[in-house]
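Task 17 of the worksheet. Students: predict the tertiary structure of the chain below and write it out as structure tokens. Keep your answer in the requested format; marks are given for formatting as well as content.
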Amino acid sequence: MKEKIAALKKEFPALGARFGGRRMVYLDSACTVLKMRCAAREQQRHMLKLGGCGGKRSVHALALAMEENFHSARAAVASFMGARSPAEIIFTSGVTDAVNLLANAFPFTPGRSEVILSPLEHNAVFLPFERLAAAGKIKLRVVPLGGLKPDMKTYAKMLGPRTALVCFTHASNIFGGREDISSAAALAHSAGAYFFADDAQFAPSHAGGGALCGADACAFSGHKIGAPYGTGALYVKRELMGKLRPWRVGGGTIEDVSVAGGRYKVKYLENYQGFEAGVQNYSGASALAVTIKRLEKCGFENIRKHISGLVSGGLDLLEGMNGVRVLGEREDLAEGSLISMVPEKKSFSIPDFNQFLNLQLKGRFIAVRTGRHCADLACLASGFRETIRISFFAYNTPRDTAFFIEALRKYLSLLK
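Model answer:
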């Protein structure tokens, strides 16, 4: 395992970069994973050698090569997400784009127009549905929080004949750990509702995701696994895909346009083709597929074991530390990729601590995430206005955590 992790680490040149003459300790992978050399090379190769027209618009040799490469990328993503067929994969620019598509294409009816969200949803999931609710198109309900987890007993009672869709994150980006997606999906299905899983924080170290746990739809972002920005995918089970309404339309989405009785009649293509309007990010999709294959070469079991060890090691160092409180339970946190904490001293300023990590350490700076993490539902439900979050990926080492703990102790020692 160690050899494979060490080999994978060499794919991330940013780890050796200096910023203002200082080395970086990167503990912000929950925001975005550093980018892989193989992904950058593949995107460059694709743009320089295959920069033609794809999407089955042309039939010359270059266009056919483009389409073949695009189909290969879709197949790789389908396998990664646990889809039964590449036709169940819609390429998107990430989870935000995916959920906006799902929300606006979903077949709500007057009798089923209620959406239930877990209290841990990222704003990427919350806001598209909040917007529909504000326009009076749906009713939005949020499951209460209990012990930093969704209250599953209350959730079960909230489900009913008007519930159309349920959305749960597979791994919280603010409290860490992982959620019981299988049980949540089964409950939604028992009420006749569809289920969506946000795999943004789960996919980087587990692979697969909601599709393998009974979700009807799920999504992940390429930038969370080391692929280029603006890449990702939405998986939609075939049965639901056929019910979605075209939302973002344009070139490449239609099968036929005709005129009857003085009116135009448009017939849209089935499956993913009806939802990928216009020229796509072909080079990004190819680089995304290469990234997935490189992670699979390392082995997600190895990546998961490595990251779990980093989380557990970090919890060991934080245990009993006066001045901060770790959020969540140890056993659950080890299944995730991050540790979130809040100050226990009134004189502890989170923004000030962030500046301390960036400006006051000799020879290095430590990149962490502070604030609300775009998890406003969780902050409102828990009462935590902001947290300090350290997050890990395959390239991190126990030494990175030790640097952070040393800096935290030093900062705490300066407080009155």
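Marker's comment: The mean pLDDT is 96. Residues 61-81 form the longest helix (21 residues).
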